[in-house]
Amino acid sequence: MKKINGFTGSVVRDLKNINLNHFFYFNTVAECESLTAAAKALNITQPTLSQQINKLETTLSTPLFLRKGRSIKLNDNGHFLYEYTSKIFENIEEMVANFNYQKYTLKEKTIKIGVSKTAPKLLVTKILNPLFSDNKMGLSICEHTLPTLIDELRRDRMTFFLSEHLGDTSDFGDDIEVEKIFSAKYHVVVNVDNPLTTMEGPLSKILNQADYFKFSKTNQIQRRIDRFFLENDVLPVVMGESDDLHTACVITQNKPCFSVLPETIFESYEGLVSIAKLELSQPMSISAFFLADRDRESQVRDLLTKISQDH
């Protein structure tokens, strides 16, 4: 049997015979428990309301109320139906309210941008900041894993997404363009009162056995830091880990430890100083990924130019 909007033909025929207004009248009578009060709330006459309720009962082939004099209360079938109509009209009320809010608050142009779950959020915020200053542009930011972002991009559900980039584009396919937006310079960072600030010599001497707050072991930049430390005989003592840059900065501000942080981030935190710049192989960069589509490419590149100017 053919389906329309997920319903079989027989259900569709039943739905065609249903008047939503009748259910609204029913729902109002059920809540008021009085035809007079319901008619007043609906701004219609009581005879008209009674007629509409009778039509609904005829359509459903069952009475919905117990009537005794002026009293009118739901019967068992009415209670069953009311469980559904009350939810339906609550949802409709919410839908209309949200639609009106969106209609009056939505910007002239809304750009949907994806962000990979592993991308440093403070860094992404700094990168996207120029777009927030455009009063005619609305931004919708969503966070997903890299495979989901690629799938959403190919389904044309976002304009572009931002993610760390290791320099190899072969895994993404010919339909996806990659453009580097920001290349991070990483520093060994401590608070100004840390004794490490007074030490001199190679990093192996300064950082060996020093308390170290690091990124998680699955973090791509941490893997490169670990490789750098291994190659330079740096053996610190790990005291904790987090991929959240704000957390790392606050911990480093308040504890006698060091962290390895991107330059543009730690500089905005009072009391943090660099004691060394790390020359990492394949330095971390944040890149924009977008579809290689001529119709969309100029719009995307205009946006990327705007967010690249400060980096």
Features:
24% strand, disordered N terminus, three-stranded antiparallel β-sheet, 311 residues, single chain
What does this structure look like?
- This protein is an alpha/beta fold.
- Helix content is 45%, strand content 24%.
- It has twelve helices and 14 strands.
- The chain has helices spanning 9-16, 20-32, 35-42, 46-60, 76-105, 121-132, 146-154, 203-207, 220-231, 245-254, 263-266, 294-308, and strands spanning 3-4, 7-8, 65-68, 71-74, 109-116, 137-144, 160-165, 176-183, 186-191, 211-214, 237-241, 259-262, 272-277, 285-291.
- The strands form five sheets. It has a five-stranded mixed sheet with strand order 6-5-7-14-8. A three-stranded antiparallel sheet has the order 12-9-13. Strands 1-2 form a two-stranded antiparallel sheet.
- A hairpin with a 2-residue loop joins strand 1 and strand 2.
- Helix 2 packs across helix 4 (46-60).
- It is elongated and about 100 Å long.
- The protein starts with a strand and ends with a helix.
- The model is unreliable at 1-9 (pLDDT under 50).
